[in-house]
Design goal:
Rossmann fold; five-stranded parallel β-sheet; four-stranded parallel β-sheet; 11 helices; alpha/beta
Length: about 300
Amino acid sequence: MTKLSSKHLLGIKNISREDIDLIFSTADNFKAVINRPIKKVPSLRDITIANIFFENSTRTKLSFELAEKRLSADVINFSAGSSSVKKGESLVDTVNNILAMKVDMVVMRHPNPGAAMFLSERVDCSIINAGDGAHEHPTQALLDAFSLRERLGDLTGKKVLIAGDILHSRVALSNIFCLQKLGAEVAVCGPSTLIPKHIEALGVKAFLNFRQALEWCDVVNMLRIQMERQDIQYFPSLREYTMQYGLSRQLLDEVGKEDIIVMHPGPINRGVEITSDIADSEYSIILDQVENGVAVRMAILYLLAGQANSAN
């Protein structure tokens, strides 16, 4: 297989295991590129990409922009806060106006689930979903799985725990889909109020006891509490949450997990879901995730640009 099965990346649910393998093998090549003294290649020199972010973002936006520039693409950055969206312009009109300037690809983050899918059905260019509400965040899941593959090799049978605010997390759902397609076993853990009902229907274990969950897993991916998406109180206090679900060196020592791998998609709330002595420890691959994010996004942009060119 030499090309992706779709001209868009809307969610992990929509792509195949073969697509994931192709993205990873391409990312391996680009990781070698970004570790060279000259980090730029001319692969997308004639491509124009618009980054359209209707929600605030630091890591994802910077990572995409760097990936695009490493590939020599022309880049347009669009922020909804200072745009005609504030004046009532529709999403489709906004994007079509940008496409009229001869843009080839759109990377979009939007607060509404399904926004990327909605747009892909109405405009004539490749769409990459950089996060749609609490639904999916496919590039984060791909870079997480790529980082695990670097450490563990084949993920078949590996036990991966996703812990924290599962209910409001787009990272959790995309990771579940991606890890399962790669053969891993997946579990979630958090307060019962932050575990979606019927999540076990996805083939996922659900733990309420964090210590028991850590005893089960090979990898733990810690998620932050998403206060900005919570309109009610889901637990008594942050202090109590940290006591029950915070990851610390003391807890890992007590559980006896000397070879566990610790991940976090960022931003980290140090001292809440994870302590600094773990985030900065030998267990952590958090900075590997950041570095791999650029290589994986380069691979996705490169492959989708090839799809768009072959379709034209």
